Amino acid sequence: MTQIPIIDLSLIHNKDINSKQKIGKQIYQACHEIGFIYIKKYNLSSTLIDQVFDYSKYLFDLPLDVKQNMAWSDEFSNQGYVGIERERLNPNNPGDLKEAFNVVGLDNLPTSLFISPAIPIFYQACSEVANIILTAFSLALELPEDFFTINHNQKNHTLRLLHYPALQQQPKPGQIRAGEHSDYGSITLLFQDDMVGLEVQTATKEWIAVPKIADTILVNTGDLMQRWTNDVFRSTKHRVMIPNDEKVKFSRYSIAFFCHPNQDTEIACLESCKTDKHPIYSPITAGEYLLNRLQATY
Ligand SMILES: O=C(O)CCC(=O)C(=O)O
Ligand SMILES: [Fe+2]
């Protein structure tokens, strides 16, 4: 597979078993071969998505000292503002030309700042869409339908607003907007604007552009899902390049919703993924795994 497929999520609500099997098969093939899917017909209003993009613009436009007052402090809370060049998604390259704002859970939102009411509503809506996608993942892997949703019911997800500013100066050698990486969690939901730059590495190591497609969201499988499935599902490398045209003069915004299983969920090779080979990875709790990965990137 050299292209990212578009999958109709509404199939899952059909009562007939064939539709359900169809979506399971589509998910399996997409996750096995490319690890990225465009999802259409999900239940999330475009007005709400626009409100979050508007809020994101407001937030990143604030003076730097205001943003720094909400700075990300440690991997245990993983909350707050991450300045330009602070994070290296590819540790071999200079810092990423992006700034980000992390919201983890809904219980401890920063009080120092006006939080748009759209944020908790969007967080909740993304959790619900993620649950439907995770149900389709269960079907794909011949698990009980609620297997993944039960293991995500503590909502340890991270909502991340991202801003890639217009290029101000010549980048350092190897410096891009987001270094090549794979995501850490189970699945990620990604909302892009019209500014290009996102690229995904196919199984044959080719980088392909992943533009926004209207009325779809992009979903990718992360490292924990790869581990859980014994490499049956791929956690695919991706990156955000600096545009080589006029678009470099403009900001790019995106919104990522990183889904994480419950802290104490043990990630051990699933039964249906043991068929071809023995378990590759030793069991680990989702909480411990995430902490290890965050410690390595900051
Ligand atoms: O901004 C994007 O399109 C991708 C961001 C991303 O891959 C990440 O933050 O993990
Ligand atoms: Fe990513």
TrEMBL record:
Q: State the pathway, as annotated in the record.
A: Antibiotic biosynthesis
PROSITE patterns of this UniProt entry?
Answer: FE2OG_OXY (PS51471)
Protein family according to the UniProt entry: Belongs to the iron/ascorbate-dependent oxidoreductase family.
PANTHER family reported for this sequence: 2-OXOGLUTARATE (2OG) AND FE(II)-DEPENDENT OXYGENASE SUPERFAMILY PROTEIN-RELATED
Q: Where is the Fe2OG dioxygenase domain?
A: 155-261
Q: Which UniProt keywords apply?
A: Iron, Metal-binding, Oxidoreductase
Keyword Chaperone belongs to the record = no
Q: What GO MF terms are annotated?
A: metal ion binding; oxidoreductase activity
Q: Report if keyword Protein transport is assigned.
A: no
What is the protein named?
A: 2OG-Fe(II) oxygenase
